[in-house]
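Q: Convert this sequence to structure tokens.
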Amino acid sequence: MNSLTLAERVAVTDKLDYLILKYLIDKRDKFEYIPKSTLLRDLNLGEKELQISLLRLAKNGAISKTKVRGEDSISITFTGLDIVSTKSLHSRKIVKSLGITIGEGKESRVLFGYDFNDNTIVVKYHRIGRRSYRKKNRQFS
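A:
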């Protein structure tokens, strides 16, 4: 599944996958990795449905998994952020569909897209790393 385009990855992301990605974004300020047990508790999910969704998200490259203090933990990737952003743009009637990638670098990904009037548009996803993200929000006492 890693050969899927961003548009295809968005298309195979269901409501539960999207809910998990949104949760990871909401907690991203404080936690780089969220324990699987916290996802189960906070999202009130069953073990099996969470496992299936996490497997699908991992195959799509939307999340990364690691063990933190011996427990399986999850973090959102740039692809996961792109999926949530694309779904948000679609629900707000800004982007109807995505086309091919026309450029990708360390700081952004640029794609052709179409608005709801079928006009060709350019969609740019910025890449701001975790270090930049934290530094930007750092407070001094």
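Strands lie at 34-35, 63-68, 71-76, 97-104, 108-114, 120-126.
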